[in-house]
Design brief:
globular, 4-stranded antiparallel β-sheet, mainly beta
């Protein structure tokens, strides 16, 4: 059974920091690129950041570059999102996503249930 379980969400004041975690199981974690998405109320889900299988390459949305950091620990099957200088408009459900290599050139995608982040005074 493939599972991605996010944790670490909650209420934080504007300008504050929060670290999200995603625990993966049921697949070969080291064969998966990992992503964080978020979905604000009334808006489409958007890609926030990505990290390759080895952690050697990361990508960030322009809106969060310099404030968020994605990392992974393949020994623990964990991926993290460190968020700093949070803004109220970044209130959203944050989702962990895995792009798992299947065979030679195929991929399979998996999603976590999401964790709520609320940025408010």
């Amino acid at each position: 059974q493939v599972q991605l379980v996010e944790s670490g969400g909650g209420l934080v004041q504007p300008g504050g920091s929060l670290r999200l975690s995603c625990a993966a199981s049921g697949f070969t974690f080291s064969s998966a690129a990992m992503n964080w998405y978020r979905q604000a109320p009334g808006k489409e889900r958007e890609l926030v950041t990505s990290i390759t299988e080895t952690g050697g390459t990361t990508s960030y949305a322009d809106s969060i570059k310099g404030r968020f950091t994605i990392s992974r620990d393949n020994a623990k099957n964990m991926v993290y999102l460190q968020m700093s200088s949070l803004k109220p408009e970044e209130t959203a459900v944050y989702y962990c996503n895995a792009r798992v290599r299947v065979g030679i050139a195929g991929f399979r995608f998996h999603w976590g249930q999401g964790t709520q982040v609320t940025v408010s005074s």
